[in-house]
Structures are given as structure tokens and as C-alpha cells.
């Protein structure tokens, strides 16, 4: 089983700590590619058009400025740097050592800067989205695709891949020779069903934590549906598994609003 998460848009900058050690991160073979993206990010973030190049608003000027010193900034486990609805719901910062150890081989956050990291990997805060075209590197999804595929395919090892990412991050890595299932969440209220972004992120975070804390990893989409049903309980209205000819099968969890 391999769970794929998107990064949070916002990050919590570690107040203290050593800078990132690229060779100490998961998938050390990605180190030269991480270095290339980080160097480009630092350079672009110092240019006059940095806000436009990184496609962010004026309120994020401080985060863009912090990108300029990305190699010198304090690093901390990704479980504490990534924040937001999904990561707060997972309570990843509170995972104990055994859960983090399990996640080291079962969970990855796909990142525009790092390619992919495990929750225990020490990284600095940064501002960069996968949909960005970064200097001479160009589109980051296209840059990472051939580099991530061998790394993450080897980690998935033909098993179940549980995908909780958004479309721009899916573009950077699409599993091959694996049972690929995308997790969708809908809310049912007054007989109507709709996607509510906050609820979807929250539920995916809860599911990731639930699966990481359980030694018995699901091996099929049906196993995954059972695990989700057991976690959600009476609030679960429906579970629908939709096979796809191309791309991932889709597991949709419908929750009472």
C-alpha cells in the first residue's frame, strides 16, 4: 500500500534547526533534481517579477522572500511543516515513532520542490506549486514526471496506491503496474450531493491517519472501502467504486452533511 498526498499550500516555518540535508531525505537519488529546482526557486524568488512568476498574491511576499534562502533556512519533519485542513485532520505532527516508521514506506507527499517526501523527512518551509513554470526548468509536473516514476513505482511495488492528490500533482506522477484508486468525498445534504473542498480534505486526512495507524494495510479497493466505512461509521451514506479505463479507479465516499 502506498498513500499519495498533496502538500499543503501553507507551511509552518521551523523556528530552529539545521538546514535541509538532501542526501538524508527519502529517495536520495532525487537529490540533484531537488538541488536544481531549489536553486531555480531561490533565483526566481529574488527577481522583480517573482510574485507573477510564482503566481501568488501580495499577501505571500514574505513566503516568496523566504524562498531566496531555502538552503539556509531551518528544516523540520515534513509532518510538522505541512499544515492545513488535510494535515491537521491527520494530526500528522502528533504521530508517534512507530506510525512515522510505518509511513516511511507507505506514504508520500508529492512536492513541487522535493519531488516526494515522507513525513519524517526534514525540510524547510517554501512556497512553490506544481502548476508553476519555473525559469529554465519549465513546467514542474513535466520536470518531475520521468524522475518520480521509477522511484514511486518501486515503492508501490505493484500494490494498492491510494491517491488523495489534486490534478496538478497527479500530472507529476501516475502509477504504472499498480492498483491505483483515487479517493473522492461528497457531502449529502437535503438529498443533494456535492463536493465540499474542506470536507474532502478533512476526510482524506482522517483516512490517511487511520490507515497509517493500522498494521493491516488494505490490498484492494474493496478493502479500502471497508476501512473507510469503519472509520466514518454512521455518517457514511454511500460508498461507490467506479472503475476507469484510463487513470485511477475512483472510490467516492458520501457523508451526511
From TrEMBL:
GO process annotations (BP): response to hydroperoxide
Pfam families: H2O2_YaaD
Stretches for region Disordered: 1-20
GO cellular component: cytosol
Top-level taxon in the UniProt lineage: Bacteria
Stored PANTHER family: PEROXIDE STRESS RESISTANCE PROTEIN YAAA, PEROXIDE STRESS RESPONSE PROTEIN YAAA
Name recorded for this polypeptide: Peroxide stress protein YaaA
Amino acid at each position: 500500500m502506498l498513500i499519495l498526498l498533496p502538500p499543503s499550500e501553507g507551511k509552518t516555518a521551523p523556528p530552529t534547526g539545521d538546514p535541509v540535508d538532501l542526501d538524508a531525505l527519502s529517495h536520495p537519488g532525487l537529490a540533484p533534481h531537488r538541488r536544481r529546482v531549489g536553486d531555480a526557486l531561490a533565483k526566481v524568488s529574488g527577481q522583480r517579477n517573482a510574485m507573477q512568476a510564482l503566481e501568488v498574491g501580495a499577501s505571500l511576499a514574505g513566503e516568496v522572500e523566504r524562498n531566496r534562502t531555502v538552503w539556509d533556512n531551518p528544516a523540520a519533519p515534513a509532518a510538522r511543516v505541512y499544515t492545513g485542513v488535510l494535515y491537521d485532520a491527520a494530526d500528522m505532527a502528533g504521530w508517534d515513532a512507530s506510525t512515522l516508521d510505518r509511513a516511511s514506506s507507505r506514504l508520500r507527499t508529492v512536492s513541487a520542490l522535493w519531488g516526494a517526501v515522507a513525513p519524517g523527512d526534514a525540510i524547510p518551509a517554501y512556497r512553490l506549486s506544481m502548476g508553476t513554470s519555473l525559469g529554465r526548468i519549465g513546467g514542474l509536473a513535466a520536470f518531475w514526471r520521468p524522475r518520480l516514476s521509477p522511484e514511486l513505482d518501486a515503492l508501490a511495488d505493484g500494490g494498492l496506491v491510494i491517491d488523495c492528490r489534486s490534478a496538478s500533482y497527479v500530472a507529476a506522477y501516475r502509477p504504472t503496474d499498480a492498483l491505483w484508486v483515487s479517493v473522492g468525498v461528497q457531502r449529502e445534504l437535503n438529498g443533494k450531493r456535492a463536493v465540499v473542498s474542506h470536507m474532502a480534505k478533512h476526510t482524506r486526512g482522517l483516512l490517511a491517519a487511520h490507515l497509517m495507524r493500522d498494521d493491516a494495510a488494505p490490498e484492494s479497493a474493496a478493502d479500502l472501502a471497508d476501512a473507510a466505512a469503519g472509520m466514518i461509521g454512521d455518517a457514511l451514506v454511500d460508498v461507490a467504486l467506479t472503475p476507469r479505463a484510463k487513470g485511477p479507479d475512483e472510490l467516492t465516499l458520501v457523508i451526511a452533511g
